[in-house]
Design a protein that fits this description.
Layout (H helix, E strand, L loop, with lengths): L7 H13 L1 H12 L9 H4 L2 H4 L5 H37 L1 H4 L9 H21 L7 H25 L1
Helix pairs in contact: 1-5, 1-7, 2-5, 5-7, 5-8, 7-8
Amino acid sequence: MSSSGLNYSLLSIPAYYVFAITPHVYANSILIANGYEPNNANPKASLSPSAVKGKVPDAVFQKYQRAENAQSNNMESLPLFAAAVLASIIAERTTLKGAAGLGDDPTGLTTFIGAWFAIRAAYMVSYVQIGDHQTSFIRSGFYALGGVLAGWQFYKAASLLG
């Protein structure tokens, strides 16, 4: 906790939500840049693949789909991230080990949050930019690394809780 009284680790959860929607914003921007006008009165329908396909070049359509899929996957990862953050905060606040003796960050939560954002950023960029099958395994590696990182964070919280 900082001297301002805010728990920045807890605020990383809504920050991740905002971060997670950036591929959706990018998807819209590439459609608009290629002459497609989404209908804000019915955005889900106007941005569905069936509504977009054939109205922009195929390479743009493929990138749009990958960006939307990256955004969906980010949202699917939000509960895992939030639970790891909350488990760590609880472990740090409710144990004597967290209260005295192991420093300000006994679970390494600050490092986890920074690493999570870095890995997810690399995941998003690789998801959107890599369009071929062979190279797409780079994206899968980032995805797996994020899962391992979250699992390790849960382990550290569980170890502190005993």
